[in-house]
# Entry
Amino acid sequence: MTSVHPPPVPGRELSNPPMDGISNLRFSNHSDNLLVSSWDKTVRLYDASSNILRGEFMHGGPVLDCCFHDDSSGFSASTDNKVRRIMFSHEKEDVIGRHDAPVRCIEYSYAAGQVITGSWDKTLKCWDPRGASGQERTLVGTYPQPERVYSLSLVGNRVVVATAGRHVNVYDLRNMSQPEQRRESSLKYQTRCVRCYPNGTGYALSSVEGRVAMEFFDLSETSQAKKYAFKCHRKSEAGRDIVYPVNAIAFHPVYGTFATGGCDGFVNVWDGNNKKRLYQYSKYPTSIAALSFSRDGGLLAVASSYTFEEGDMPHEPDAIFVRSVTEIEVKPKPKVYPNPPA
# Structure
């Protein structure tokens, strides 16, 4: 995968960033509000367009993930094992449930009206946030996983769960009795991130070894023949390859192209269908920990936050950049076919 475009500037830096590592960030589906979770035990709510911190919510432990419900509330996953609902306007929160170990991932399913959480206790749990406060009333079901949950992603009624040990389980939220599919990652090394294609046909999976795999749900021979993996976030230095973990994947909501962020500090944009890199942004101060496109794809939020891949060492401060996205960066290029002979 190659490209020839010069890199633009990194974007506008948001004021009042977290004081410790950024674990995730998400744009709202309804506005340019941005929710950010951090190891400093906070969830922060920003108006990304106006560069205003709208709210800050302190938790009992580092926060490993967050997501929106709507523009008035969201959810968070913490190392204190709790799943919380945050009411932005009231500046309060309530605990909707607990795991037996840190909660690593959280998603809200608009299709099912449920909160989905994955934990290092090797379970996936579904919660109904409309129930009265308290785990007994809000817990819909607990689903054992083969290992600790590292990443999960939703599209429609499907949820894809990636765990330690390179396991991938695909569920249908309408029937959670057992996985619809049990898979093994086609990448040889530990999974960092899984994200479903916006069109619902499959998912992208990244690893610590500078690779991304493009997978499809349809098990037919024709569909499975389309899957592939590619190398990225690598460089050659003094005759040897230096390989960086790919921490983040974010799909563009309009074009279906996707961005990846790595520990090399670069964000690349890819056209998965045509197997090409469309763009590479100029290098950020440190590792890319998380990425999110806004609802219309006009903005890209980038978490520049050291992920301790080289141990405890001096590093650049954690920062959130928001950049405007142009079509040349994310729109697939039409294939050009040679003119047939006369």
About this structure: The radius of gyration is 20 Å. The first helix runs from residue 135 to 138. The chain has three helices and 30 strands.
